[in-house]
Amino acid sequence: MPKAPRKKKKQRQRINPDDFRHVTKTVELPKFELQNVVATFNLGVDHLDLRAIALRKPFVEYNPQKFAAATIRIRSPRTTALAFASGNMVCTGAKTEIEARVAGRKYVRLLQKHGIPVSFQNFKIQNIVASAEIPHTLKLLELSRSYGPYVSYEPDLFPGLVFRTTAPKLVFLLFRSGKIVITGAKNRQEIESTFSSLFHGIVTKFIDYEDASTSSSDYRAKMRRNFR
Length: 228
Fold this sequence. Notes:
Elements: E1 32-42, H1 50-56, E2 60-61, E3 70-74, E4 79-83, E5 88-94, H2 97-113, E6 121-133, E7 137-138, H3 140-146, E8 151-152, E9 161-164, E10 171-174, E11 179-185, H4 188-201, E12 207-208, H5 216-226
Antiparallel strand pairs: 1-5, 1-6, 2-3, 3-4, 4-5, 6-11, 7-12, 8-9, 9-10, 10-11
């Protein structure tokens, strides 16, 4: 029996931040803080015997039945690295781009000190996660109705509203409480320019000055009553 054709997943459109570069600024732009910098680098080898390394080195955790990579952690900077058999490593947990690079070099030195011939190559930042918070609650339902094609808002599944932008391709998570999470950036300059445009051009229009309740469930129930 022939398989039924798969339905193509509907892709959300992405807002162009350039459309909001020259909007009048009525509310001060909140400062954002980096929460996690994810970076990758290569150890300069074709293959790592992760099982053998984990058996000899107590600082290496490896359970191939759960995950294909070995886990290594260091305290300063406080990060976690995943080492793959291909020689690639992923470092997470750094708070800045410099911390991510320093951590990567420390992982390489740690392996070198224990007799594993590796080197530090092809370092690259893959994702930066940042957060900001405005001192006001947000009208998420009204925002989703105004920018429907560009957002995803399903409060029964997830309390945040998802906003996607083009050039650069970033994802913004907006919460009722006023907290904003930004992900997908390769550098902080991408966040600075895009966040400013999105905040002044869109977010400030949907600040809730009348209801200060930060509860997502209360807001959802109220909106259901109002829009019946």
